[in-house]
Amino acid sequence: MTKIAWIGLGVMGYPMAGHLAKAGHEVTVFNRSASKSKAWVDEYGGASATTPAAAVEDAEIVFSCVGADDDLRGVTVGQDGAFAAMSSGGCYVDCTTTSANVARELAELLKDRQCHFLDAPVSGGQAGAENGQLTVMVGGDQSAFDHVAPVIDAFARKITRIGGVGSGQTAKMVNQLCIAGIVQGLAEGMALAKAADLNITAVMETIAEGAAGSWQMSNRWKTMDAGEYEFGFAVDWMRKDLGIALREVSRLGGTAPLAALVDQFYADVQHEGGGLWDTSSLLTRLLR
User: Fold this and answer.
1) What is the value of pTM for the model shown?
2) How far apart are the C-alpha atoms of 255 and 160, rounded to whole Å?
3) Domains in the chain and their CATH numbers?
4) Using an 8 Å Cβ cutoff, are 92 and 110 in contact?
């Protein structure tokens, strides 16, 4: 059993922390809305704290899954932030999707406290979090990774150390760029099938077994066909992620024209009131 602090109980963090508790770890949670912390404790046991600093007292490993760079800075180095209360030798594992820069920035701050920082963004969406089947991309020191990986295993299907601090976040950028193109291609293909009055079930079940098959196709074509988008990974968050990735591409002197275009398509979905719709809602643009 490991003493763990978990900061952030959104649609991803809530079940991820739950898997740690079910694995037998002693978990103390913090969330900005205390009602969510109470609901989590009622469901999984453990304890809740009123500040990030209070949550991490005596914790061996601290996890966070919050919103974006500024949210992460707020819970780590802001008022009553986690870093001030971390014990020497502790490890901070951030599962938020952020910039690689903020990961490196925070890792440097923890060095003075002789603590480790791992950036560990995840892929697999809400369903992956609930089922404990996330893919975790980790950046940081090998020894810290070796120590934490067996704990992360409680909510993961695959855990890989990509390299040094920041490399996990950069790998997540690669992931999001790939997804953007795949979902847009799926939306265009389904729009054609609908316009041609094809049997959608026959088409999707057939091509999913061929070279066009993907996780997005297998898990989203039915809900896309039904026009159901009130679930999954929100468009607002995808645009945040794509913004991070596109800025990194630009910083490195490259271009990502397809992702930039799909980002604008997601802006169209937002303007339609779909900011909280699943990313597969790109199809709505093509069926007007």
Assistant:
1) 0.95
2) 27
3) 3-164 (3.40.50.720), 170-286 (1.10.1040.10)
4) yes
